[in-house]
């Protein structure tokens, strides 16, 4: 049932993408538009305290299409994080495209973190299969099958846990995320299972990173 739902979603995504004209992305222009971003995403290990305590996600090296789509979701209200929505509402579609291109470029050439990938336990393997995680995020969870999906391998585990919980609670005005596919997947799991998944995915080798800005080096 889950695989059928994912296949249907991928077809819908491909169709909608073919109807949406792509904006030109200018990473150099994006470098001049990140003043509201670097206070959190430009400090390695920076921890947010509102509305939940967790490390802010690493976005350098993430796909530009995913970053732009995420910003658009915050602006639209499908993602309800107050701070991120406040930032996104000040940005035009072109601003989002440029900032996204900048952060994608930051990670170009970055090596996958040299940590030994550990085989999942039987419990984790069963959870990964149940969630069909590799169907979108790729076999190593670091090479998504479509650039509108995020790399998740090596992402901060506490952030992954908060994000997964958010898909279970789309009505929350503080942390909810309205996404039919991820909502359907996340709602299959108990909180403890989501934490197990997040901890494992966060322990994997990945190419995401935080690149400190000059004022924070």
- Sketch the topology as an H/E string, one letter per element: HHHEEHHHHHHHH
Cα distance spanning the termini: 48 Å
Strand-residue proportion: under 5%
- Describe the global form: globular
Number of helices: 11
Reported for the largest beta sheet, the result is: 2 strands, antiparallel
CATH class: Mainly Alpha
How many structural domains are formed by the residues?
A: 1
Low-confidence stretches: 10-20
| The named CATH superfamily | Cytochrome c-like domain
Give the beta-strand count: 2
As a whole number of angstroms, the C-alpha radius of gyration is 17 Å
Helix content: 40-55%
Major sheet strand order? 1-2
Going by helix content, strand content and strand pairing, the class is mainly alpha
Rounded average pLDDT:
89
CATH topology: Cytochrome Bc1 Complex, Chain D, domain 2
The CATH architecture comes to Orthogonal Bundle
Description:
The protein has a single domain (25-210), classed as Cytochrome Bc1 Complex, Chain D, domain 2 (Orthogonal Bundle). The chain starts with a helix and ends in a 15-residue tail after the last helix. 48% of the residues lie in helices and 2% in strands. It has a two-stranded antiparallel sheet with strand order 1-2. It has 217 residues and is mostly helical. It has helices spanning 2-19, 27-30, 38-41, 64-76, 82-88, 93-106, 122-131, 134-137, 157-168, 180-186, 191-202, and strands at residues 47-48, 54-55. It has 11 helices and 2 strands. Strand 1 and strand 2 (54-55) form a beta hairpin.
